[in-house]
C-alpha cells in the first residue's frame, strides 16, 4: 500500500510523525492509510480540547500526521491535520447551526441528480453553490437516464443553469463508461446527492463489484433510504479515487458561492440602476426586467434570493454558536463568565 495511490501531492510530515490519509469515518472512528498499511485511529486530546466545531476535526479525504502504534492492532493517534486544499461543508441537519464536514481535499465534486420524479433544478442549484465554494471543481452527474422520457429537455435545463460538465449515465455498461472516462487516475471525486439518486450503484459499477448494498427507492415519492451510513474513500481499479457519502435529505448552506452559481443573474445586475439592488421592487432593476421579458426564469431568481438570505442567516447563527462554544470552554457557561467578570470589576473597585 503506497500513498502515491491515494492522490498524494506535496504533503509532508514532521519528524516522528507519519503522513496518512483518512479513508473512512463513522462515529468518530477513523480509518486511515499510510505507507505502513491501514490503521484505525483516534484524535489526540489536544485536537479535542482546541476544537470549536466539527470543522476542527479530521474528515474523509483529510491528510493527517499520525503517531503509529508499536502494535499494528492498536489505535494510531492523529496529532495534526494538514492544510486542506478543498473542503465541502454544510450545516448540520435540523435546527442547529453547527457545521458538518462532508469531505476534504477533493479535486471534483460530483453533484448527482436522478432523472426520475426526484429531478429538481432548484435542489441542484443548492448543491452547485456549495460545490463552487468548496475549492474543488464542480460537475453534474445525471443518473437513471433510462427512467425518463424527456431526457433531452432535462439535460438542456441543467446546462442552462451551469457551465459545469454534465455527465449523463444509467446502469448500463455504456452509461457507466461515460462516467468512468471522466474519472482520472490519482484524482479524488466526491459523490454527493439526495438519498436514492444512485450514488452507491454507480460506485459499485465503477469498482466492478457489488461491494456496497443498495436500497430500493420508494415508489410513492422516488426517494431512497440511506444506503451509505459512513463516509468512505475508495480506490477504483482505474486508479481514480472516489468518496461515497450518505444521501442528504437537506443541504443547509454555510459556505456557498452563490455569485458563481448564478453568474447569469450577476451579469444582468450590472445593468441595474442601483448598485445595491436586491432585485425585488427597486426601479430600474435589470434583473426584474429580464424576468418580465422571459429572459430569466422567475423561479431561478427566487432560488438565488433565497440562497443568499439562507447563507447569511446560517453564517450569523453559526458565528454565535462558535462564540458560545468559546465561552463555554473558557468559563464553563455564559452565567459563569458574567459572574467572573462581575467579581473582577468588584476587585478592581
UniProtKB/TrEMBL annotation:
Q: Which GO terms describe its cellular component?
A: cytoplasm
- What does the entry give for GO biological process? ribosomal small subunit biogenesis
Identify the residues that the record assigns to the EngC GTPase domain, covering every copy.
104-249
A GO molecular-function descriptor:
metal ion binding
Task: Output the Pfam families linked to this UniProt entry.
Answer: RsgA_GTPase (PF03193)
Give the residues annotated as coiled coil: none
What keywords does the record list, in alphabetical order? Cytoplasm, GTP-binding, Hydrolase, Metal-binding, Nucleotide-binding, Ribosome biogenesis, RNA-binding, rRNA-binding, Zinc
Residues involved in GTP binding? 143-146, 193-201
- Stated family: Belongs to the TRAFAC class YlqF/YawG GTPase family. RsgA subfamily.
Q: How does it assemble?
A: Monomer. Associates with 30S ribosomal subunit, binds 16S rRNA.
Q: What is this protein called?
A: Small ribosomal subunit biogenesis GTPase RsgA
State the taxonomy lineage: Bacteria, Bacillati, Bacillota, Bacilli, Lactobacillales
Amino acid at each position: 500500500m503506497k500513498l502515491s495511490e491515494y492522490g498524494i501531492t506535496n504533503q509532508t510530515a514532521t519528524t516522528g510523525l507519519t503522513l496518512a490519509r483518512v479513508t473512512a469515518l463513522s462515529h468518530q472512528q477513523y480509518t486511515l492509510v499510510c505507507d505502513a498499511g491501514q490503521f484505525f485511529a483516534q484524535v489526540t486530546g489536544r485536537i479535542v480540547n482546541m476544537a470549536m466545531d466539527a470543522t476542527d476535526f479530521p474528515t474523509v479525504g483529510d491528510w493527517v500526521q499520525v503517531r503509529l502504534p508499536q502494535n499494528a492492532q492498536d489505535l494510531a493517534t492523529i496529532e495534526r491535520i494538514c492544510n486542506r486544499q478543498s473542503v465541502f461543508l454544510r450545516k448540520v441537519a435540523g435546527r442547529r447551526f453547527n457545521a458538518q464536514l462532508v469531505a476534504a481535499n477533493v479535486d471534483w465534486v460530483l453533484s448527482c441528480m436522478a432523472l426520475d420524479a426526484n429531478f429538481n433544478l432548484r435542489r441542484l442549484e443548492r448543491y452547485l453553490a456549495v460545490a463552487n465554494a468548496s475549492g474543488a471543481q464542480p460537475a453534474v452527474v445525471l443518473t437513471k437516464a433510462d427512467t425518463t422520457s424527456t431526457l433531452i429537455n432535462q439535460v438542456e435545463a441543467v446546462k442552462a443553469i451551469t457551465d459545469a460538465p454534465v455527465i449523463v449515465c444509467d446502469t448500463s455498461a455504456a452509461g457507466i463508461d461515460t462516467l468512468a472516462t471522466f474519472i482520472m487516475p490519482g484524482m479524488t471525486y466526491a459523490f454527493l446527492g439526495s438519498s436514492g439518486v444512485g450514488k452507491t450503484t454507480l460506485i459499485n459499477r465503477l469498482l466492478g463489484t457489488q461491494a456496497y448494498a443498495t436500497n430500493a427507492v420508494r415508489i410513492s415519492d422516488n426517494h431512497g433510504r440511506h444506503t451509505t451510513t459512513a463516509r468512505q474513500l475508495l480506490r477504483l481499479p482505474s486508479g481514480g479515487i472516489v468518496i461515497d457519502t450518505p444521501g442528504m435529505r437537506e443541504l443547509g448552506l454555510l459556505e456557498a458561492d452563490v455569485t458563481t452559481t448564478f453568474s447569469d443573474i450577476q451579469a444582468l445586475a450590472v445593468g441595474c440602476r442601483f448598485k445595491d439592488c436586491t432585485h425585488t421592487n427597486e426601479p430600474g432593476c435589470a434583473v426584474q426586467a429580464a424576468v418580465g421579458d422571459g429572459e430569466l426564469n422567475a423561479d431561478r431568481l427566487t432560488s438565488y434570493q433565497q440562497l443568499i438570505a439562507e447563507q447569511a442567516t446560517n453564517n450569523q447563527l453559526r458565528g454565535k454558536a462558535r462564540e458560545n462554544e468559546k465561552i463555554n470552554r473558557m468559563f464553563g457557561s455564559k452565567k459563569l463568565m458574567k459572574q467572573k467578570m462581575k467579581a473582577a470589576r468588584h476587585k478592581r473597585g
